[in-house]
Amino acid sequence: MGIFFLNQLPIFHVYLKGKYVYKKVISIIVVGLLVLATVTSIGFYFSRPQEVASAGSEPTPRSAPAMPSEEVVTPQTDSQEVLSITQNGITVKITSAQVISTGLEIGICYTALDNGEWRPLPAPLFYGKYEIYPDEIEFLANEILADGKNTGTRCALIRYRIGDLNTITPPIKFSILRFYTPGREMYSPCEELQQRLATNPQAQSYGLKAKCEENADGSTNVTLVENDKSITMEEAQKALNIIASAEVTGNWEFTITDIKK
User: Fold this and answer.
1) Domain locations in the chain as residue ranges
2) Helix 189-199 and helix 233-245: axis angle, to 10°?
3) Residue 66 burial (10 A CB sphere; 0-12, 13-18, 19+)
4) What is the pLDDT of residues 182-191, one digit of tens each?
5) Percent of the chain whose pLDDT exceeds 70
6) CA distances, 53 to each of 22, 42, 245 (Å)
7) Does residue 87 contact residue 247 with C-beta atoms inside 8 Å?
8) How far apart are CA 202 and CA 243, in angstroms?
9) How many Å apart are CA 220 and CA 9, to the nearest integer?
10) What global pTM score does this model have?
11) DSSP state letters, 200-259
């Protein structure tokens, strides 16, 4: 509403029986305007939404307008993208990388193609100007054995002995050159092969059956006897050769940027 100034009210002219009578009607106008202002104020008051405040409490504040919600996206770093590599049927995952009292320890989990004792052959570790050879491997007890339908999983801690821990700075180049499975004392060489054929999912899906003969030096001669009709003999022979060799080559190479100290 505007502001009214009393000293600016006009003088009204009233015409009565052909005569002009000048009369100040300031008092009447003032009263009328005050009544009008009062009525307008009352209407404005009741037209506003009312806020209720209890005794001894602050008035309830009005909430701010709701802002559009933002989806929280966790960016994937380069190190995360290379922490898992699959090659030649074997997936290698980096599970940890930390500085220990004797150097650096890297944890891995990897696919076991059958129930043989699959072991990794790690390459030297590279960072800065340093090349460090692996010192020891500890196999963990959480092994999942292959059963002919599913491959297994083995996990290990690979340790590198480093004299000056202060030299350990990322990025670090870590790689596995190959996986191999040595013979177990409980089996003869041919028994070892037959055990691995029976627990290898690819051998089972290909329907591989083989004849095995042992030589005097401990080596074996393996001959393909039967395979599923869904694959060619060449495919079956290639798969059997790989299984009989007890070795899968890589390279599974990682760049590790996050190291726990």
Assistant:
1) 7-46, 84-182+246-261, 184-244
2) 120
3) exposed
4) 999 999 999 9
5) 69
6) 54, 21, 84
7) no
8) 10
9) 123
10) 0.68
11) -HHHHHHT-EEEEEE-TTS-EEEEEEE--TTS-HHHHHHHHHHHHHTEEEEEEEEEE---
Q: Which of 189, 237, 234 is nearest to 209 (CA)?
A: 237
- d(Cα 170, Cα 76) in Å, to the nearest integer? 18
Structure-token match 């029986």, residue found: 17
Contact 210, 240 (CB under 8 A): yes
Task: Determine whether 38 is exposed, middle or buried from the number of CB atoms within 10 Å of its CB (0-12, 13-18, 19+).
Answer: exposed
Q: CA angle, corner 107, sides to 106 and 111, nearest 5? A: 130
Q: For residue 254, how far is the Cα from the chain centroid?
A: 17
Q: Pull the structure tokens for residue 227.
A: 């395979």
- Can you say how many angstroms the Cα of residue 252 is from the centroid of all Cα atoms in its chain? 21
What CATH fold (topology level) applies to the domain 84-182+246-261?
A: Immunoglobulin-like (2.60.40)
* DSSP conformational letter for 8: G
**Lookup: tokens for 242:** 């790989």
**CA 245, CA 179: separation in Å to the nearest integer?**
11
Owner of token pair 């999912």: 201
Q: What is the per-residue pLDDT across 66-85, written as a single tens digit (0 to 9) for each?
A: 323 333 222 233 444 459 99
